[in-house]
Each structure stands twice: as C-alpha cells, then as structure tokens.
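Worked example 4.2. Below are the chains of a multi-component assembly; read each line carefully before continuing.
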Amino acid sequence: MIEIDVVKRIKTASGEVDMHVKVDIEKGGFCSLFGKSGAGKTTIMRLLAGLTEPDDGVIRIDGKTWYDKKNKINVPVNKRKCGFVFQDYALFPNMTVRRNIEYASVNKSNVDMLIDMVGMHELKDRKPANLSGGQRQRVALARALAAEPAILLLDEPFAALDADMRDTLQNELKIIHNKLGVTTILVSHDKGEVFKLANKVYAMDDGVITKIGTPEEVFTDSTISGKFKFTGRVLKVERADCLYVLTLSIGTEVGHVVATHSEARDISIGDRVLVYTKAFNPSVKKI
Amino acid sequence: MQELLSPLILTFELAAVTTIILAVTAIPFAYWLASANFRGKSIVESITGLPIVLPPSVLGFYLLVFMGPHGALGSILAQFNIRLVFTFEGLVLGSVIYSLPFMVQPVQAGFEALPVSLKEASYTLGKSKFQTFFRVVLPNIKPSLITGIVLSFAHTVGEFGVVLMIGGSIPDQTRVASIAIYDQVEALNYSTAHFYSAVLFVLAFTVLVTVNMVNRKISGKII
Amino acid sequence: MNQLEAKVLHYRTSGQIILCELESFGAQVTAVILDSPGELEYLKEGNALNILFKETEVIIATGEIGQLSLNNRFRAKITAMEKGDIFTSLAIDFGTGMTSVITTKSAERLGLAVGTEVTALVKANEIAIGRRD
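Applying the procedure described above to all three chains together yields the following structure tokens:
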C-alpha cells in the first residue's frame, strides 16, 4: 500500500499552484496518472522516488515512512527502491545493454533472464547510441526491474515511439506486469494506453486530481445519451465505396461498423473508440 | 647533454605534477561548481577564470609578493623553514593556480552538459553518490576530462611570465624550457633556442592532433 | 455521425423512454430515446444540446411529399455530392450542414445534383442527444 499525502508548489499552465495530492495505491496494482502535460503528473512520481522534495506532508510505503515533514524523515533516493523509467530512458551511454542492466542488478544471475524477457539478447553488447527508441525503452525497463524495485514508475515511457512500436511494447509491459506483479504507476496522456494497461486511473488537471476510478469510469463518454455503448479497439480501417468499414474488437468479440469519411478521418489502428447506437436499432434473437 | 636536456625534463616534470594535482583537486571542484547553486557562484567562477585574462606577469608578481618571505603565505611557511620563491615547489603552486581555469572550465562544462536524468537514474537504481560519480558521471564526460588534462598540461608547458616572476632561472630548479629559450636568445645562442623551440613545437602539435582524434572517436560513440 | 445544435422545447417520459421535442435551425425535431432523464443533466427545457444521427439513416425526398409517418423533415439544398459505385454521399444545407448517404441508384432515380432542393427525413428513434461542450 502506497500512501501519499503531500503538498508541493508547482508551475502549471495557469500559473503557480499548491498541488495537494492524496492518493492511496494498492500493492501489486497498475495505476495511471492521466492528464495534460504540466498537470503535475511527473511531479508526483518524482516526489515518490525522492527526486523532488515535497513542501509538506507524508509518504508511506507498506507502513514504512519515506517522507514526513513534521518528523523530518526523508529517505534518500537510493534507499527507496523506486524503479524509474525516464521519458528520455536515461541509459548510461558508456555501458552496453548488458552492463546497464548489470549495473542496476541486485541479483547478477537475473541479468540474462531480464535481457531475454525484453528480447534484447542479440543486442546485449551494443551501446545505447546504437539502439532504436523501442530498444532503448526495453533496456530502460529491464534495468529498472533489475534493481528489484518496490514500485515501478513509468514516465510517459512510450511517448517517443511510433504507433506500432507503442502497441507492441504496451502488450509486453502488460505481460511483464502480470508476471512480476510489481506495483506500477504510469504517467500518460494517452487514453488508449491507460485503458489497455491500468486498472485504476487518477485524472489530473492543474495539480488537482479530478477523477478517480477504473478507465471505464473515468473515460467513458457520458456526454451522449444511450443505453447501448461499448468501448472497442480499432483493428482495421478499410475504404469501401465512399464509406469506410472499421473492424473493431469489443470485449472478446470482433465486429464491423460503417463509418463516413469525417468519422474515419481521425481514427487509426489501435485507437480506443466508443461504439454506440440507439437502443431501438439492435435486434435480438434467442440462442 | 644533461645540461642541454635539463630544462626540457624540468618542464615536463612541472607540467606532469601540476596536471596530477589539478586532476585530483579541480575535477571535484568543477563538479561542485556544476551541481551547486549558491549566491556568489559567479564570483567564485570569475576568480577561477582570472588567470585566463590576467597578464601572467601580474599574476606572477602577486604570487611572488604572497609567497615571498614577507608575504602572507611566505612568512608562515618561513617559520617551518619552507621556502616557495625560486623553488620547484613554488613553481608547482604557481602553475596550479595559473592553469586552474584550463582544467575547471572544460570539465565543469562537461558536467553541466550531462543530462541530469543519468544521475537520477543511477540514484533510483539504489546507487550512492560516490558510485554514481565514478561509474556514471566521470566515464560519460571523457572528452571534457581529456580536454581539461591536455589543456592544463600544455598550458603549464607554455607558461613563461609566472615562472619567470616566482622562479627566476635557476638550473635544474626553475629553469624550464620557455625560460631557457629566452636565455639562449639573449645570449645570441640561436641553435640551442631552436632546439628547445622545435621540441616544444612538435610536442604541442602532436598532442593536439592526438586529443582531437581521440575526442572525435569518443564523441562518435556518445550521444 | 451528423451532429447538429438543437434547443429543447419540452419532453415527456413513459417508463425509460423519453420523447423530446426540439428545434434545430428552424426545423422541428422529435427524438425518442431510451434513458433516464435524471442521468441526462443537459436535458432541460430551453437548454441547447446536440442531436446526433447516422448519415446512412437520412432519407432524401424530392417534390411533394404525401402522407408519411416521419416527423423530422428538413427542407434543404444539396451543396456537394460524392458518387461511389453503390453509395452516394450528399452534403446538404438547411441553415446548417448535414450529410446523407443513400444508394447511387436512388440518387440517379431522383436526378439529384448540386443545387437540387430536397427534403431530408430522419426517423425519431434514430436521433440521439448529447451534451453540447
């Protein structure tokens, strides 16, 4: 259980704000801090990792106090065991893939397992400069895990990658999280990503947490009436005559929807979409 | 022969000792300057950079006064029977001060250019400041370190004014190559002056070419 | 999805079904929806909201219309046409724009062209409402 109850003055798009954050994150879960850039998401992660000091408050992990302003407790960064995956990956340029992971590892015998897990076996002797964005991302994740962190903090880890690579790595991350069960916090401004990975979302705006809940609760569009609404993921967009046919996965089923040019224009493969229809339209048949 | 080579040997001894002392003291100092943020930082940086703009004879003169038997430092050391003026040790102290900015400035720039996230990543991986400094920070500013070391060395080899002021021209003690060249020219002994000058010229050129090549190779590997 | 601004004139409910009478750019619009009025905080008399309906559900008629059950009729003019093998997409204007997708066969039978005056018809149960942001 992670308990954060802190105050920190931050600069946001609308000037300086005293950000008051009070969140409880359950152990082993995957939660996301969602919001525009400058909303204070990264600051919360830095406060948790000890890279930034709060102005006031308390941070406790599994009953251990990491920060307590009143009792002057401030556990240093290197004693907190927070695996931090930085936006720029922050791989050490002087070390190969293997050495980067080895440097971090608590248990040297896990190094090869981690390299294999992120599919970097072939490239383990390369330096970061000779890796693609997606490969660097994988190494950064493996390196963070090598330190056997109590919490894994991911700061927009997929922001710099193209859509296909993002999709692949999101799936890998999901698998790794399910396997290792490390409490994970993901900073993101991508609804699709949050939907896919997180089971709890903290939506933030200007240093304030505005909504807490499951991705469905936080994001599902309540601005359109109707009792027949589902969220789905776009698998395919095909042109058909002067219309488009979208192939969607909804739950475990796959379906097709006809869309006009103006609807299909902003939709690309992998996007999360709201599928809705008037409750009058569907026909039912007993099976 | 021994007499002929003595100024050259002395020059390289002085440059080597100066560079080693600077490497040990000025690199941590540069790291502190790069990471600290305090009032008066620009004043500290200006004092460090003074030897670049000050005429060497001015610096040499003040050092002479300061280290002389009636000077602030000289009078204290005199009680322990230590003399700095007109000695090799005095030259070392003068050279360290004179070459300080040539070590501090490139190294400080190197530290400052290093992304903060590298250090932060190392800390979050459970590493101490000490481990981070030696295994992450230093290896990633190699070009700056090489530049600092070579510049300090070369600059010490080339100094004249400060050495003349505080060291004079005592054979085997303080008569370094640059002084010897001056002495030989004054004595109209051009061939010996040529010899010293040519050695320094070739050495300086070789060192610069090597450094440039090494740095190009390293920076090609580092993003 | 066509999305037009409309004003709520009044509404009544029967069980979970709501009948809304609205006005959009001078046209009377009736929408039947399945929802609880309490959950739709924007459904208030005099309030502006969006009406939404799919392009393929917009029927096009020309000339005099006889007796028809359809309530929602928009007198409009064709401003653009995109003809495909099977479907034709019509951009029409009745004070604001909307799109209708009908078969190319029908478009040809009606002799539609840019500038043709038409009546666009939408069944009340095809219209959804949504908050205007």
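Take a moment to check your reading of the output against the notes. The interface with chain B takes residues 49-51, 76-84, 86, 88, 90-94, 103-104, 106, 127-129, 143-144, 146-147 of chain A (CB under 8 Å). The domain at 2-219 of chain A is CATH 3.40.50.300 (Rossmann fold).
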